[in-house]
Amino acid sequence: MSLLVRNLDLFDPLDAAIGEQETMEAQLAVLHEHIAECRLCPLHAGRRQVVPGEGDASSGLMIVGEGPGENEDLQGRPFVGKAGELLDRILEAAEIPRETVFITNIVKCRATETVDGKLQNRAPLAPEVNACRPSLVRQVEIIQPKVILCLGAPAGRGVIDKGFNISEQRGQWFEGPYGSMMMATFHPAFILRRGGAGSGARELKKLVWEDIKRVRERLASG
Fold it and tell me: For residue 151, what are the contacts with CB-CB under 8 A and spacing of at least 6?
């Protein structure tokens, strides 16, 4: 059911350049240089920086979010805003250090729209996700994580299945490429948007925590 597959009969110079590298870190570096030059969709026109992803190239866990926000666009790093801070706290509580995880997004450039004269984040459109998917596929090919954790409905639809429904399928395991298992849970930004007491945020946090514990158990299963 994974969307992280491609026709292996298709081969281009990027595959050759990646294949010439002896380490996963070097392979990712070549890929990320390629991503930095990408012009395949309109998102490149509005970006300050491309955000290819970061983390442990030998990680057993790949976390895939929706796309860079304002802070990520400024710094060129994934999950460095308030949602990133919440993600860090969740990972720390689960004893999964952020530096042992590889974190990326289904699109590598910030998707925005203007609302009442202000620039705001928006969910990436299907053509934008499709244009960026080969980069994500190659990241998975290089890292071959044991677990792929999608954060939010757009990531679930971009990685697991186009018809993915997070309300019904959150926390479920799906088979992924290279023997990996995939799961989606709520995005930290969604929890933050729900606000304080009486808003349902506490219940969302409990659900996410249950999902993270399943991820931790899967990683520890050898």
Answer: 63, 64, 65, 66, 87, 184, 185, 186, 187, 188
Residue-level length of the chain: 222
Query: What is the distance between the alpha carbons of residues 128 and 107, in angstroms, rounded to a whole number?
Result: 7
Q: Which domain holds residue 155?
A: 13-220
The count of domains in the chain is 1
Does 2 map to a domain? no
pLDDT tops 60 at residue 71: yes
Q: How much is the pTM?
A: 0.94
In the sheet with 61-65, reading across from the earlier edge strand, the strands are 54-55, 102-105, 61-65, 147-151, 181-185, 174-175
Residue where the block lists tokens 């990133």: 84
Across residues 102-120, what is the average pLDDT? 95
Which tokens sit at 203? 């219940």
Is residue 5 in a domain? no
Q: The CATH number of the domain where 120 resides is what?
A: 3.40.470.10
